[in-house]
């Protein structure tokens, strides 16, 4: 962060993501079910605490940032949600065998009652903390 502060020119800015729940729709419980079962199997999740966290350390270096939200429509299917939860690298700590999660995803999808490939639209919100260098 010190290097970021050093290289940003006056009037420039740095945007740090605070995250945003990727599947904030009726499909969210599918994602959560894959995460829960993965943890029950002993896998360690890396990023499924949704919402702002950890920006206090950044504030201590860059000062107080303004929160900006970006909103846009997103379309997902039940199949996309469970496969993302089972295999996306941001979701699980590195060095783990995620192979068992494929069967978990299939089981969650099969028992969900959702049509696997029916599009579900929802509003996606991603929050950023924007730090501006003084001009």
Q: What's the SSE blueprint?
A:
Layout: H1 2-7, E1 13-19, H2 28-40, H3 55-62, E2 66-76, H4 78-87, H5 99-111, E3 120-132
Antiparallel strand pairs: 1-3, 2-3
Helix pairs in contact: 2-4, 2-5, 4-5
Overview of the structural elements:
- With 135 residues, the chain is α+β, with helices and mostly antiparallel strands.
- It has one domain (15-132).
- The chain contains 5 helices and 3 strands.
- It has helices at 2-7, 28-40, 55-62, 78-87, 99-111, and strands spanning 13-19, 66-76, 120-132.
- Strands 1-3-2 form a 3-stranded antiparallel β-sheet.
- Helix 2 (28-40) packs across helix 5 (99-111).
- The longest helix is centred in the N-terminal third of the chain and has 13 residues, at 28-40.
- The protein is elongated and about 55 Å long.
- Mean pLDDT is 85; it is low at 48-52.
- From the alpha-carbon coordinates, what is the Rg to the nearest angstrom? 18 Å
> Main sheet?
3 strands, antiparallel
Fraction of residues in β-strands: 15-25%
The main sheet orders its strands as 1-3-2
How does the overall form come out from the CA principal axes?
elongated
- Beta strands, count: 3
Please work out how many helical segments DSSP would assign. 5
Distance between the termini: 19 Å
